[in-house]
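Budget justification note: compute hours in this period were largely spent on complex prediction jobs such as the one shown. Inputs:
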Amino acid sequence: MTPRPNTTRFVILGILSTEESASGYDIRQFVALSIGHFWQESFGQIYPELARLDADGLIAPVRERRTAGNRSRKRYQITPHGRVILKSWLQQPAAPSPVRLEYLLKIFFGRAGGLPTTRSHIAGIEKQATERARAFAAIAPELLQDSAADPDLVFALLTLRHGYRTAEARLQWAREAEALLRAFERGGNRGVAAAWKKLPALEAYVDESP
Amino acid sequence: MTPRPNTTRFVILGILSTEESASGYDIRQFVALSIGHFWQESFGQIYPELARLDADGLIAPVRERRTAGNRSRKRYQITPHGRVILKSWLQQPAAPSPVRLEYLLKIFFGRAGGLPTTRSHIAGIEKQATERARAFAAIAPELLQDSAADPDLVFALLTLRHGYRTAEARLQWAREAEALLRAFERGGNRGVAAAWKKLPALEAYVDESP
DNA sequence: TATTCCATGTAATTCGTTACATGATTCT
DNA sequence: AGAATCATGTAACGAATTACATGGAATA
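Corresponding output:
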């Protein structure tokens, strides 16, 4: 059986490629704060993987100069070999990421749940998407100020912008969805068909050249 | 330990709530064709779950009138109890769906991978998003024609539109990402900061009322 | 006749989360 | 003194995929 990717490895290597040194706890923090909107890792994944990476020589523990008490805290740094492995992974095309959106499931099966229920799911998405879009919008200026000398700045901005665009798309979708449901309630499938035609034209935009 | 959701159950119940009767194979087909862009199930999940749902009385096997040979094919239909359970699940707010996008990981760690690599990842997304947006755009007219009498039509259109908006957002993002990288190559972080300000303003749109 | 598709199901293995155990440090 | 947070790690369990085994029906 061909073994599955084990992406956690590369997340850890990636973080250690930018962070110089980090503990398991640090890595968890980094993931939650910086890439939490498109990736997550739990301690149960991180700690065992750190041990394996160490055993494989891709990372190495760092001598900890203990400030006072013998506080147990293991920091690691990436090895040259680790960098090579990371780079070769980065250069391979990304594997397709399966997406599972439970809220769309609940909307897709909307007839069995009832229209009011469907509406409240959509309203929930709209609210959440609005909050997220605002949050992403607020982060960018901070990042531009605080990380003006950070060589990783562009890449952080790239993923941040992706988060914003995704939130914005959901917000737009939620508004269109509400319009379609109103049309459905008033005019059934024929009403929906009419409302659909009023939505921004699809083909035109996609064909547009950059 | 609080048991985890087991969404496969409700996917099966949902499909049987609209489909009247279906086999494990049919369910797999349905998932792949109708909701594959935001949900997926494998046989290894479906078949055991069908057995459990049967044992719990939420679905029931249907007598199969065999056309000729004794072909083994088990079709199931949802029971009244199954409908009750489905409905109560649908009415609960959707659990947050963890998202994992490997391609963003590769972009986020772009410095370790090199600019050309990052560019090719973005180009890949742009191509894929374009194809998807076009595909979604092509499905809608078909659906409006073929399913004019289908009581589930609106809900299918809703999720279809979500897929389109997502693809479109990625396409827009990819173009912006390319612009940011060009600015970075020419002017480093200061170039990026300048290019960032030229992107469509963030706050304005989100504050807009429907 | 060979290949593809229909069809069901199990086994092996990995992925990933949650809960638990444990203890130090910092803040109120 | 007590609460919150920092910090590491393991155990248990469920989720999910992939591969395998098996065989009929249709089609080229």
